[in-house]
Inverse folding.
C-alpha cells in the first residue's frame, strides 16, 4: 500500500470521527448559546438516538427511514422533559447568574448518569447495531476504501451545521436564543421568553445529538454507555473550535478527529489520545477562546 | 371440645414427624458469590452470576452434598474493586460463608485476594489475569482460561497454517498488554510481529491501526479486546478490503460479537472453551454430555444463550461441591481448601480441572479449541 493511500485512509477516518465529534459539539453549542449551561448529558442524546432507532427497527420492524423520522422527535421530547423537570426548576433568574450556571451544569451530570442507567435497564448491556443506509460495499477513492456510511455522516453533519447557523443568525427564534444567552435580564426586558428559549435549545440539541447517534450506529454500534466518551470528545472539540460557535464546533471536531487518526497512523496509536489532549492544553494556554471563539467563555 | 383437640394434635404430630422428609433440613454449606452484574464489565458479571446460581441449583437438585444443600449468598459489586472488598468482608463476617467464588473483573478479584488470604477463606476467582494465581497464594484459586493458554493456542494454529508475519493490536488495558507479553514470550522465531499498535476499548474507529497492518503486508492480525471494539474492528477491516485471518481473544467467543461484525465475522478466529462447538465434539469427549446438559439447563433457567462466562460460575460451584464432599461435614474452611488442591479430572464446562498445590488454576492447554465463524454459527477451525 503506497504511502499516499495510507495518508488518504487516515484523513478519511479522521473526517468521520471529526463529524461525530462535531455533531456532539454542535449540541453543546446550542444549549450554551441559549443558557450558558454546558450540558454534559449531550453524549447521552447521541446514545438515545442510536438505541431508540434500534428499538423501532429491530423490535417493531418499521422501515429504517420511518424509524429515523420517529426517533428524532422522541429524543427531542426527552430533551424537553429533562429541561422542564430538572433544569427549569433550578434555573432562577437573578444577579448571581454564574452560581446558577454551575448548579445547572452539575444537574446535567446527574441527568447523564440517569439516562445511562435507564438505557442499561431498557436495552441491556450488550452493544447493538443497525444496517447501513446504503449497503456495506466499500467505496473506492484513489485506491483508498471506506464505508459508504461515511458519506452520509459527513454530508448530514455539514447540512446540519448550515441549517443551525442559518437558524441562529437569520430567524427571530434563533436570534432570541442568542440574546437570552448574552444577558438574561436584558433579553427579558426585550420581551424574550427565556424559559421558552432554554426549552427550545434542549429540544434542538437533543434532536441534533440523536441524528448523530443514528448516523454512526451502523458503523460503530451503540450501547448504553456509548455516549460517555463521545460526550467528552465532543466537549474537547467544542473547546478547540471555540465554545458556543457553530462553525467552531465543526472546525474543532475535524481538528480533533484528524489529530487522532493522523497521530495514530503516522506516530503511534499509543499516543493518539495524548496528542489530542496536548493540543487541547496548548489551545487553552495560548488561545483560551478556541480557534474561532471571539470572546471569553465565562467572564468574571 | 376435647374430642376435637385430640385428632388435631395427632395430625400436628404427624406433620412434624413427616416434614423433614419434605424439605432438606440438613444445614447448608454457605457459599458466597460476587460479580459485576452492573457497571463496567456487566456483560461478563451477569452471566457469571447466573452460572453460580445454576451450579448451586444443580447440586441441590441432585441431593446436595451428602444431603447438605448449598446456599449461595450473592452480591453485585457493581464493577467497583473497593465495593468488592466490602462485599467479601460482609460475606465472611456476617453471612458466615465457608467459601467464596466470583470477581468477574480481574481488578475486583485482585482487590479481594489480600483480604481473603488474611481471613483464610477459600476463594475461586473467575477473573482471567495471570496475576491472580501466579505466584500461588494459599487460599486463592482461579478457573478462567488465561491469556497464556489462549496465546499458546493461537501460536499453534499460526504455525500449522504457515503464518509468519503478524500484526498485533491489543487494547491499551492490562488485559491487552498481558496478552502481548504472553504472545512474545511463547512465539517461535519464525513468527514476526511487524506491527504492534494499541487502541482504547471505547474507541470507535480503528482504520489507522489496520491501515498500518495492511501496509506492512501481514499474514494475520491478532486483536486483543473484549467489547464492541472487537466487532467494529472487523467492520473496519472489511471496508479496507482485508482478507487475512483475525485472531481474537477467548473473551469474544460469544454469539453477539460475530453477529455484530457483519461480513467481517468470516475472518474471525478465536480460541475458546468447548461450549460453543459442543455439538461438533466426538462422542468420546467426556465434556460433550456435561456441556449439552449445561447449555439446556442454562437456557431453560435464564432464557438467554449460555456462554463460557456462565460456565465459569457453574464450574466454580462444582469444584467446591466436589471438594466439600471429600472434606465431609461439618464444613471446615481449611479442609475444603486442602481438598480443592486435590481436584483431579473434574469434568467441568470450560475444561477438565486438575488443581495441584503448585497450579491453582488447573486448566490445561487442551481445554481450548480454535473456532471460526461459518454460515452464522461457531465451527471448529482446523
Amino acid at each position: 500500500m503506497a504511502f499516499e493511500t495510507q495518508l488518504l485512509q487516515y484523513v478519511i477516518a479522521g473526517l468521520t470521527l471529526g463529524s461525530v465529534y462535531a455533531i456532539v459539539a454542535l449540541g453543546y453549542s446550542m444549549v450554551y448559546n441559549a443558557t450558558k449551561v454546558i450540558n454534559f448529558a449531550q453524549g447521552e442524546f447521541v446514545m438515545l438516538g442510536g438505541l431508540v432507532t434500534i428499538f423501532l427497527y429491530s423490535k417493531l420492524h418499521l422501515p429504517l427511514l420511518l424509524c429515523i423520522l420517529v426517533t428524532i422527535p422522541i429524543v427531542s421530547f426527552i430533551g424537553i422533559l429533562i429541561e422542564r423537570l430538572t433544569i427549569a426548576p433550578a434555573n432562577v433568574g437573578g444577579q448571581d447568574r454564574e452560581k446558577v450556571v454551575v448548579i445547572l451544569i452539575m444537574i446535567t451530570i446527574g441527568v447523564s448518569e440517569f439516562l445511562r442507567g435507564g438505557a442499561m435497564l431498557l436495552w441491556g448491556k450488550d452493544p447493538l447495531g443497525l444496517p447501513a443506509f446504503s449497503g456495506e460495499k466499500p467505496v473506492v477513492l484513489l485506491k483508498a476504501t471506506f464505508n459508504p456510511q461515511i458519506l452520509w455522516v459527513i454530508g448530514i453533519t455539514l447540512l446540519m451545521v448550515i441549517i443551525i447557523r442559518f437558524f441562529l443568525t437569520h430567524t427571530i427564534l434563533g436570534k432570541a436564543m442568542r440574546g437570552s444567552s448574552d444577558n438574561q435580564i436584558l433579553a427579558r426586558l426585550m420581551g424574550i421568553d427565556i424559559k421558552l428559549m432554554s426549552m427550545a435549545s434542549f429540544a434542538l440539541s437533543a434532536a441534533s445529538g440523536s441524528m448523530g447517534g443514528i448516523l454512526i450506529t451502523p458503523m460503530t454500534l451503540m450501547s448504553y454507555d456509548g455516549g460517555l466518551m463521545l460526550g467528552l470528545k465532543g466537549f474537547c472539540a467544542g473547546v478547540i473550535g471555540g465554545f458556543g460557535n457553530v462553525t467552531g464546533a465543526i472546525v474543532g471536531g475535524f481538528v480533533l478527529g484528524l489529530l487522532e487518526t493522523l497521530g495514530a497512523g503516522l506516530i503511534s496509536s499509543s499516543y493518539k489520545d495524548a496528542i489530542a489532549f496536548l493540543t487541547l492544553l496548548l489551545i487553552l494556554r495560548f488561545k483560551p477562546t478556541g480557534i474561532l471563539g471571539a470572546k471569553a467563555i465565562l467572564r468574571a | 371440645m376435647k374430642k376435637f383437640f385430640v385428632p388435631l394434635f395427632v395430625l400436628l404430630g404427624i406433620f412434624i414427624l413427616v416434614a423433614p422428609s419434605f424439605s432438606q433440613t440438613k444445614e447448608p454449606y454457605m457459599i458466597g458469590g460476587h460479580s459485576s452484574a452492573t457497571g463496567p464489565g456487566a456483560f461478563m458479571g451477569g452471566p457469571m452470576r447466573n452460572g453460580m446460581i445454576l451450579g448451586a441449583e444443580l447440586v441441590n437438585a441432585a441431593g446436595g452434598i451428602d444431603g447438605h444443600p448449598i446456599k449461595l449468598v450473592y452480591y453485585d459489586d457493581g464493577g467497583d474493586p473497593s465495593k468488592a472488598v466490602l462485599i467479601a468482608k460482609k460475606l465472611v463476617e456476617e453471612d458466615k460463608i465457608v467459601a467464596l467464588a466470583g470477581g468477574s473483573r480481574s481488578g475486583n478479584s485482585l482487590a479481594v485476594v489480600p483480604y481473603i488470604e488474611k481471613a483464610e477463606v477459600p476463594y475461586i476467582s473467575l477473573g482471567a489475569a495471570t496475576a491472580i494465581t501466579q505466584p500461588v497464594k494459599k487460599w486463592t484459586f482461579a478457573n478462567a482460561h488465561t491469556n497464556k493458554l489462549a496465546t499458546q493456542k493461537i501460536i499453534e494454529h499460526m504455525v500449522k497454517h504457515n503464518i509468519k508475519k503478524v500484526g498485533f493490536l491489543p487494547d491499551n488495558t492490562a488485559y491487552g498488554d498481558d496478552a502481548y507479553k504472553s504472545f512474545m514470550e511463547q512465539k517461535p522465531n519464525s513468527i514476526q510481529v511487524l506491527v504492534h499498535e494499541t487502541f482504547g476499548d471505547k474507541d470507535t474507529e480503528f482504520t489507522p491501526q489496520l491501515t498500518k497492518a495492511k501496509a506492512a503486508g501481514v499474514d494475520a492480525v491478532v486483536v486483543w479486546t473484549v467489547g464492541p471494539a472487537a466487532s467494529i474492528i472487523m467492520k473496519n477491516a472489511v471496508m479496507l478490503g482485508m482478507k487475512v485471518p483475525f485472531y481474537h481473544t477467548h473473551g469474544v467467543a460469544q454469539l453477539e460479537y460475530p453477529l455484530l461484525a457483519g461480513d467481517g465475522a468470516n475472518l474471525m478466529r478465536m480460541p475458546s472453551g468447548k461450549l460453543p462447538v459442543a455439538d461438533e465434539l466426538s462422542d468420546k469427549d467426556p465434556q460433550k454430555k456435561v456441556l449439552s446438559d449445561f447449555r439446556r439447563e442454562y437456557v431453560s433457567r435464564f432464557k438467554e444463550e449460555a456462554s463460557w462466562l456462565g460456565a465459569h460460575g457453574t464450574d466454580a460451584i462444582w469444584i467446591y461441591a466436589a471438594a466439600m464432599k471429600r472434606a465431609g461435614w461439618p464444613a471446615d474452611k481449611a479442609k475444603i481448601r486442602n481438598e480443592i488442591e486435590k481436584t483431579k479430572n473434574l469434568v467441568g464446562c470450560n475444561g477438565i480441572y486438575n488443581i495441584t498445590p503448585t497450579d491453582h488454576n488447573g486448566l490445561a492447554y487442551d481445554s481450548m479449541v480454535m473456532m471460526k465463524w461459518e454460515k452464522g454459527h461457531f465451527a471448529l477451525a482446523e
Residues 3-286 of chain A form one domain. Confidence is low (pLDDT under 50) at residues 296-300 of chain A.
